[in-house]
Amino acid sequence: MKKLIILLSIIPAIGSLTVINRVEPYIFGLPFVVFWAAAWLILTSIFLYISCILYDRQEQEENK
Fold it and tell me: Which of 38, 46, 55, 58 maximizes the CB count within 10 A of its CB?
């Protein structure tokens, strides 16, 4: 599971160097680069929240 999380965390960095290196198109009125950064900021927060919930559940099961 840790390897999968590490692999998923590398995707935004690789994408930012190769795929999104342009201003056009505009998404929600933002240049694509800004949208990409904002989207990953929000997604990272969501992923961290989910992983925190899963970690707490696993810790509770181990303490039973």
Answer: 38
**What is the token pair recorded at 28?**
């929600």
Q: What is the pTM of this model?
A: 0.61
Tens digits of per-residue pLDDT, 7-34?
777 777 776 666 666 667 888 888 887 8
What SS3 class is residue 21? coil
d(CA 40, CA 10): 11
Cα R_g (the chain), whole angstroms: 16
The residue type found at 49 is: Y
- The DSSP bridge partners found for residue 26 are 31
